[in-house]
Sequence to fold (355 residues):
Amino acid sequence: MGGAQSHVRDLAVALKEQGEQVTVLAGGNGGGLFEALDRQQVDWRLLKNLVHPLNPVKDLQAFCEIKDLLRKLAPDLVTTHSNKAGFVGRLAAKALKIPVIHTSHGFLFGGREHSFSGYCYRFAEKIASGAADRVICVAESECELAKRLKVIKPEKLKIVHNGLPDVELKSLASADREPPILISVARFSKPKDHYTLLQALIGLTEYRWRLDLVGDGPKQKLIEKLVRNCSLAGKINFLGTRSDVPGLLAQSSIFILSSRREGFPLSILEAMRAGLPVIATDVGGISEALIDGETGFLVPAGDYSALRKRICALIEDPILRKQMGAKGRERFLQYFSLQTMVEKTWQLYREVAKQ
Fold:
């Protein structure tokens, strides 16, 4: 599951456990979300007309479908997540005069401020945020971006960092293991920039290491071809989509994320939770989770030389890996637990529902 789906699952289960009545509406196959909700006995409904690409006919049908379902369910509060569902869902709730809160897991206009698509996304978000009572940002950087571009009224914005449930002791990593195992959990798409990661690793072939790439996506075949045609063949494993990411992190030594654009990625928190040092690009809200030089390293986006230098430093120093991993886990427990996220989110939900 992606970050938004995981967030919805964890939040829905937590609210149900504290006695609230929760129903999740989602389109497509749910990315594994429906199966996870079934295991936790959380009610869900499939939105047949909510599809990923822009489709005016389908989008209008999705609006009517959501509106009909909300009329039947008669909720005290609607909360929306992700971009398409967040846009259509907010308008449907507003049409029925039901209080609605949107959680943005990364604004689409971020990183596209001066492009035509960026202006379109900003315009769409202005319309949708006008229908929302409040908008939750999962990172301070996202909140400041919305304020700076005057997309959302400041009084509507609220920051609640993502949080995750803790794992068992068996899912904690031994970051000082030798030879080190590098891992990256990311969709193979342009924003994740696997190409820069490969460029960084080409200069480190004299060291003993292995990289596990978890995920799939449109750029996977291209990256696989690049690996076959360079000196990295035999050092990189393509693991595809996996349901056992915590177990894979527990077997690893260093976590790497080379993205050019992010909101507040859950993968960073998963790595910190496992006790791994993290090397990541300084984009979005990553610096709000990772403390440079303490729990890992921040590097500029697209700078393979800086990325190579930091990877090399951790490959060569198992003690430093262990120290940074331990500090990362401490930071996770203090600031990014599921309980902290649920408490802050539920406080806002109650406030808006009462109003």
Remarks:
- DSSP finds 14 helices and twelve strands in the chain.
